[in-house]
Design brief:
Blueprint: H1 6-14, H2 26-37, H3 42-52, H4 56-65, E1 77-82, H5 85-89, H6 92-103, E2 117-122, E3 134-136, E4 139-141, H7 146-157
Parallel strand pairs: 1-2
Antiparallel strand pairs: 1-3, 3-4
Helix pairs in contact: 1-2, 1-3, 2-3, 3-4, 6-7
Bound molecules: FE2/S2 (inorganic) cluster.
Length: about 180
């Protein structure tokens, strides 16, 4: 029995036609797989590779390089807090500490007891002038304060009315990259 449903596999097979280089379909394909399963299991990565006719090692390499892909289960809502220089100088460590308390997650490898939240510290997201900032699921939030964190968490716990929208930055933030472990 396959890990991915037939309609997701069909969607993945249709992706390469949208890109000049068929390999470029690997990231949206992994995104579809993760959206369905909550994380990228070895079976899911292998099915993505089959559907795109790519080497499984290449697909796994992409999945392990970007923080937005998860090989272990993560929370329904995922916080990616930038803890690079500009954000740290403007209070990112206080934001992280506050966030950890609000979502009841001690460690970036853990998920909150209700399965709703997880968080990671990530490298510069390319919006340093809005520091401290973060990505929450597929949106970016800037000039963070503990109050803003409280509001975002509360909105995700009871998702109505419409959640606070991120303000668009003048620059396009970078893709999320994994934070290197401290030496
Ligand atoms: S240092 Fe945080 S966005 Fe650049």
């Amino acid at each position: 029995m396959s890990a991915l449903s037939p309609h997701v596999i069909e969607e993945i097979k249709a992706l390469p036609a949208r890109y000049p280089q068929p390999r470029s379909a690997v990231m949206p394909a992994l995104d579809l797989a993760q959206e369905e399963l909550g994380s990228l299991t070895p079976e899911a990565m292998s099915e993505v590779a089959d559907a795109l006719m790519l080497d499984p090692g290449y697909v796994e390499g992409v999945a392990t390089f970007y923080t937005l892909f998860h090989l272990q289960p993560v929370g329904k809502h995922r916080f990616y807090v930038c803890t690079n220089l500009s954000c740290m100088l403007r209070g990112a460590s206080d934001i992280v500490e506050h966030l950890k308390k609000q979502i009841d997650v001690d460690d970036p490898t853990h998920v909150s007891p209700d399965g709703l939240f997880s968080f990671e510290e990530v490298e510069c997201l390319g919006a340093c002038e809005y520091a401290p900032m973060m990505r929450l699921d597929h949106h970016y939030f800037y000039d963070l304060t503990p109050e803003k964190i409280d509001q975002l968490v509360a909105e995700r716990k009871s998702p109505s009315p419409a959640p606070q929208e991120a303000i668009k930055p003048a620059v396009k933030p970078r893709a999320v990259r994994k934070k290197k472990a401290d030496a």
